[in-house]
Amino acid sequence: MPWKIPMEMWGQPLPEKIGSAPLDWRSLGFEYVPTKSHIRFAWKDGVWDSGHAFQDPYLPVHMLANVFHYGQALFEGFKGFHTKNGDVCTFADKLSWQRLSHGCRRFRMPEVPLEIWENAINETVRDNVSFIPPYGTNGSLYVRPFLFGSGPRLGVGPSTEYTFVVFVNPVGSYYQTDSGAMQALDGLVNDTYDRAAPLGCGDCKAAGNYAADLESMHAAKRLGYPISLYLDARERRYVEEFNTSNFVAITKDGRYVTPDAPRSVLDSNTNKVLQQLAVDLNLPVERRQIDFEKEVDSFAEVGAVGTAVVVTPIRSLTRGNQTWTFGEPKVLRELRDRVRAIQNGEVEDKHGWMRQIKLDDAPRDKTVLSVYPGL
Q: Which tens digit of pLDDT belongs to each residue from 206-258?
């Protein structure tokens, strides 16, 4: 498999330059790739420690850690890019920090200060520079910060200790085609499961939200649909979101519409970016309730939007015995291409989404506390 590192590389230092890891950069999918290190911070007695780098991918966690029993777990995801001019930049990572902070408040977890967030990302990217896909390969460095209750807890309540981790993983396309083109999918309207309650925590990037979706996703795939669309849990009338992506439609009269359900739909950073780019193109943007049955015939294009894919076109949606088919994703493709051009440093970043990480900052702490290789 193209992402597997030869065993003789373990324990050997990689050349510290962009793209020097022994990977087939153009064949990456969205799979786990063992990298060099991750960074870990601990919170206890109201204070975050200074953080340390670790090479092995395993975390020592108490069996009564709150995350295992009462589900205090949040995660984020965004990408870093090697740009056309040679810089390494993250894309919209401050939006992810803001969303994590919101989740912390909702789940009674300590917020991660912006300084710790940025330093952790910077150090992890620098220490894994060999795994950054080079410009022109269509790859990126996926950055996954996550936070969980790690202290032992028998009774229900917030944890007394928390762990914040940042790791990185080189990725290609989530829905991959041989040509690299946008892959259109057939979707199923989900009438047998709910994603989130109207006043629940669907707006948080909580681990439990994704666990709750697994059976629904599997049921749709058994029927031949790689993706399914949730409607609201109260009436099953209004559009909410796809399994792991926000819903966006371009109407036949040229409007960008996306659901407004503040407590049950994830506050997608990619959707925010696309909405701004739609405004830049003078497209009317409407964030509101979308009555599926009444409005579906007005959709010219439908897309599932998120960090991993930016935009995945939806070719059709089926509900019961009825199927609606949508046109070529012309507007969505243009919006996707504009995002990719900004991420690759090929056009001006007018909205300040790109944050440069200087790879040659020195001195910095290179201490690695756990030195045996990943397995």
A: 999 999 999 999 999 999 999 999 999 999 999 999 999 999 999 999 999 99
Q: Which among 94, 205, 272, 350 is annotated as catalytic? A: 205
Q: pLDDT tens-digit profile of 67-101?
A: 999 999 999 999 999 999 999 999 999 999 999 99
Tell me what the pLDDT averaged over the chain comes to.
Answer: 91
Active site residue 272: no
Report pLDDT digits (tens) over 148-171: 999 999 999 999 999 999 999 999
List residues bridging with 144 in a β-sheet: 167
